[in-house]
Specification:
The complex is a heterodimer of chains A (359) and B (316).
Chain A lengths: L12 H4 L6 H21 L2 H27 L7 H18 L5 H20 L8 H20 L12 E2 L4 E2 L2 E2 L7 H24 L1 H11 L1 H6 L4 H28 L1 E2 L6 H14 L4 H24 L6 H22 L3 H15 L6
Antiparallel strand pairs in A: 1-4, 2-3
Helix pairs in contact in A: 3-7, 3-10, 3-11, 3-12, 4-5, 4-6, 4-10, 5-10, 7-8, 7-10, 8-10, 11-12, 11-14, 12-13, 12-14
Chain B lengths: L1 H14 L1 H32 L6 H17 L4 H23 L8 H23 L17 E4 L6 E4 H23 L1 H11 L1 H6 L4 H26 L6 H6 L1 H8 L4 H26 L4 H15 L14
Antiparallel strand pairs in B: 1-2
Helix pairs in contact in B: 2-6, 2-7, 2-9, 2-11, 2-12, 3-4, 3-5, 3-9, 4-9, 6-7, 6-9, 11-12, 11-13, 12-13
Classes of the chains: A mainly alpha (359), B mainly alpha (316).
Chain lengths: 359, 316
């Protein structure tokens, strides 16, 4: 009843091809942004902002990166974790060499390093695809992980082998290191994620994004129509790794505070693949939904026994969470292989005609 | 530097041939075990086109079931039979609940479903059997222990009896499966399904039945792998990372070839051990972790279909 476009007339081509053609969607988006920018920092508890929202946004960004590669370009990648690691380690080195520079700038810069590495490991995609490509990206995953452990220069030769987030400032606020304010960290993460989502949505609607989708749908036809696979595939790898790198740098500096090579391992790569697939391949809103589902659901499940007063061993809860995630993945794939984004779309279609679907 | 790469390792090999033989033997054993894991992948991939990510956890799960049953007081032989039964139930459930509902979906969806299965089995296995590493009941199952020492070229070569048993089991499984695939009625049906699902169905082959059989066969291979690997180290969930090694093995051997899986495993096993021992020092240790993938990458560039694979891969 409330959600319908009756009376909203499109008079120009531009207005017809907007991202959100329906007024209610725009209002909804603005409301979401207001909640994220104002309500959450002001009313959210420390636990909620620090442990739920910040990582959720960072993981969303990594998922967007992966989705650009898997969902929009059709190149299966299992190396997201390692590309995030490249971003994190290069940000660490940059922060060591340029202590006075604004950290936000360094985080964005470190994305270029992982983009470079991503292009190198994307080269095999010009010859192979599917599971074969997945193995090539697995090589990247294990090789880079090994580099993070073995190359001492990367972590400034410290004895623990881990990288700590150095105390650095941005815009006059300290946003990393032990004394950082979690609200400031959240705002920085939110700004970067919102901005990069906006960039991604425009990239995808533009020429380069359409060439990615052509490669995904049928590479030979795309080539015949003048899309160069070399540029299309490598640019997808570059953009995807850029997003992953920025997410990795933020994960270490704005969320974990310190990181060992293990947090960039294969399990994290799989985690992001889950988020992308559960959310919906080839959908940006799906990245948010997938990340929320995979990240926030276990947190709720962990808290649930306490809330309803059951006394369950924490280890048992962990096992049950594993089982539930596995079961839910299978369940969602059976019910809707195109992910939560598709369910959301169906729901919107239903809402538009509700309550008179047959008129 | 060049000396260290091209001359020194070979000088070391010739200088201590007994040590080289020891390294080669270890590579051989590791290779057969990789090959066994890859075999499970190949079986399922051949018959259903599903890339079964859960094979690694099936190895762990079957081994845990066996040990868990034994610890619960079931005699070893009965535990073995019961575990085989459990693998059958697992195969049946997977077919019934997962595969049947996902017929005709894209590869990646099926792949994701097996990752979901993987997660489920990890949680379930830890819930039932606990997360701590367990000892495999090797001697109770009649596997030999101890070792024989040879003295070739005036050095020492130690061969564990268990490793010999592992190789024998691998050879027996491959021969058995090859005969099963080529000579029996069900084997022919399996190959028909692998070639073309629709054509197979149109001549009256039940896809569902075939899938159960294939997953059951993969489960038995997983059990054999689990017993052997568990006897060498412990039975723990860390084993499932080893299972990822099956991917490069498959790339080298070809996704659809049973002998290819074993040969690929051997190449990876030999290559990894030799490189780690003789060249690893140059890079710092731990190269075993990624070396297999790099070999696979090189193979992909020159022979994308693998050694024995069918040439179906599209280029571009």
């Amino acid at each position: 009843m409330l959600y319908r476009e009756t009376g909203q007339f499109k008079t120009t081509y531009t207005s017809d091809s907007q991202v959100f053609p329906i007024l209610q969607d725009k209002i909804g988006l603005i409301a979401m942004l207001l909640i994220a920018f104002l309500v959450v920092p002001v009313f959210g508890s420390e636990f909620f902002v620090k442990t739920v929202m910040t990582p959720f946004l960072i993981f969303t960004l990594a998922t967007i990166g992966l989705n650009i590669l898997v969902g929009y370009t059709g190149q299966l990648s299992l190396g997201t974790g390692a590309f995030m690691g490249v971003g994190a380690y290069s940000c660490y080195k940059l922060a060591t060499y340029f202590p006075e520079t604004n950290l936000v700038l360094l985080i964005l810069l470190s994305g270029f390093f992982s983009a470079g590495i991503g292009v190198i490991f994307g080269l095999p995609s010009l010859r192979i695809k599917g599971f074969y490509l997945a193995v090539a990206t697995l090589a990247a995953q294990f090789f880079l992980e090994w580099c993070f452990i073995r190359i001492k220069w990367l972590y400034n030769d410290n004895t623990s082998g881990a990288i700590n987030s150095l105390p650095r400032e941005a815009f006059g606020y300290q946003i990393s290191g032990g004394a950082a304010d979690y609200i400031a960290q959240y705002i920085v993460v939110l700004c970067i994620v919102v901005m990069m989502t906006w960039v991604a949505s425009n990239l995808i609607r533009g020429r380069i994004g359409r060439s990615w989708m052509m490669i995904r749908d049928m590479d030979i036809a795309a080539e015949l129509m003048g899309v160069r696979p070399l540029y299309a595939k490598l640019s997808a790898f570059a953009v995807s790794s850029f997003y992953a790198g920025v997410a990795g740098a933020m994960m270490v500096f704005l969320y974990y505070g310190s990181a060992e090579p293990e947090i960039f391992d294969i399990n994290h790569s799989f985690l992001f693949l889950f988020m992308a697939i559960i959310g919906g391949l080839g959908s940006l809103i799906g990245c948010y939904m997938g990340a929320a589902f995979i990240w926030i659901m276990p947190i709720i499940l962990r808290e649930l026994p306490e809330i309803i007063g059951l006394d369950i061993n924490p280890a048992t809860v962990e096992h049950i969470i594993f089982m539930m995630i596995g079961g839910l993945i299978i369940f969602f794939l059976i019910v809707e292989p195109h992910g939560l984004a598709r369910l959301w779309q169906i729901a919107k279609e239903k809402l538009r005609t509700w309550p008179f679907p047959y008129t | 530097m060049l000396y260290n790469i091209f001359v020194d390792p070979f000088a070391q090999m010739l200088g201590a041939p007994d040590f080289l033989m020891q390294v080669l033997w270890e590579g051989f054993v590791a290779g057969t075990l990789y090959g066994l894991i890859a075999l499970g992948f190949v079986l399922i991939f051949k018959a259903s086109g599903v890339f079964n990510f859960a094979q690694g956890i099936m190895v762990v799960f079957s081994a845990l079931t066996l040990v868990g049953l034994y610890q619960a007081g079931v005699p070893a032989w009965a535990a073995l039979v019961l575990t085989i039964g459990a693998m059958f139930v697992l195969a049946w459930l997977v077919e019934r609940i997962v595969l049947r509902n996902l017929v005709n979906q894209e590869e990646i969806i099926l792949f994701m479903a097996t990752i979901g299965l993987n997660y489920f089995l990890i949680g379930f296995g830890e819930y039932v059997f606990g997360g701590e590493p367990k000892k495999m009941i090797a001697s109770e199952l009649g596997l030999p222990t101890g070792s024989t020492t040879f003295e070739p070229f005036g050095g020492v070569l130690i061969i564990e009896h268990l490793d010999v048993a592992a190789v024998v089991v691998a050879v027996a499984l491959v021969t058995g499966l090859a005969i099963f695939f080529n000579k029996t009625r069900i084997g022919r049906a399996l190959r028909a399904v692998a070639d073309d699902h629709q054509a197979a169905m149109s001549v009256g082959i039940s896809l569902n039945q075939i899938w159960v059989i294939v997953w059951f066969a993969a489960g038995i291979v997983a059990l054999a792998t689990g017993i052997m690997w568990g006897a060498k180290s412990d039975v723990s969930f860390a084993l499932q990372i080893v299972a990822l090694k099956a991917l490069p093995v498959l790339i080298i051997g070809g996704f659809t070839s049973i002998p290819g899986a074993i040969l690929g495993g051997l190449i990876i096993g030999f290559g990894e051990k030799l490189f780690e021992i003789y060249w690893g020092g140059l890079l710092g240790s731990g190269v075993e972790g990624w070396f297999a993938y790099v070999i696979a990458l090189i193979f992909l560039l020159f022979r994308p279909q693998g050694l024995f694979g069918e040439k179906i891969i599209e280029r571009i």
